[in-house]
Amino acid sequence: MEELIARVTNRTGIDAATASTAIGHILAFLQKEGPATEVSKMLAALPGSETAIAQANAQDSGGGGLMGMLGGMMGGGGVMALGQKLISAGVPMNQMQPLGQELFAYGRETVGEDTMGPIVASIPGLNQFV
């Protein structure tokens, strides 16, 4: 997890604590929304991922603000709700795509495209961030 956090901070300029929280939110989202087999394989290959997810879930206040309201009006979740969580965690909007790209590049290097491809394909709207 430390290597992934370092890569995200180098790419985005966000601090390590914010990167860790953001990664936790993204992994929690993938765990909830993605295909169970592939997500489980990815999480097993990322030491510390379960801790990051638990910390993100503990900080999760359900989302608020305009993005949270829009997410709620559109069915309560998806990529828009994740975006709100990332903004609330301190990730600037213009760094969300580089953050996602770095996380998924790391995932592809770790577990391969055969695992990461189905995750991206199964979640509507996710491909614009990876």
List keywords for this structure.
single chain; 130 residues; mainly alpha; globular
Give the number of DSSP strands.
Answer: 0
β-sheet strand percentage: under 5%
Overall average residue pLDDT = 87
Helix content range of the residues, please?
A: over 70%
Can you describe what's shown?
With 130 residues, this protein is mostly helical. The chain is 74% helix and 0% strand. It is built from eight helices and no strands. Helix 3 crosses helix 8. The longest helix is centred in the first third of the chain and has 18 residues. It is globular, with a radius of gyration of 13 Å. About 11% of the residues have low confidence.
Put the structure in a nutshell:
With 130 residues, the protein is mainly alpha-helical. The chain has helices spanning 2-12, 16-33, 36-44, 49-59, 65-73, 78-89, 96-111, 113-122.
Please describe the topology of this protein.
Elements: H1 2-12, H2 16-33, H3 36-44, H4 49-59, H5 65-73, H6 78-89, H7 96-111, H8 113-122
Helix pairs in contact: 1-2, 1-7, 2-3, 2-4, 2-6, 3-8, 5-6, 7-8
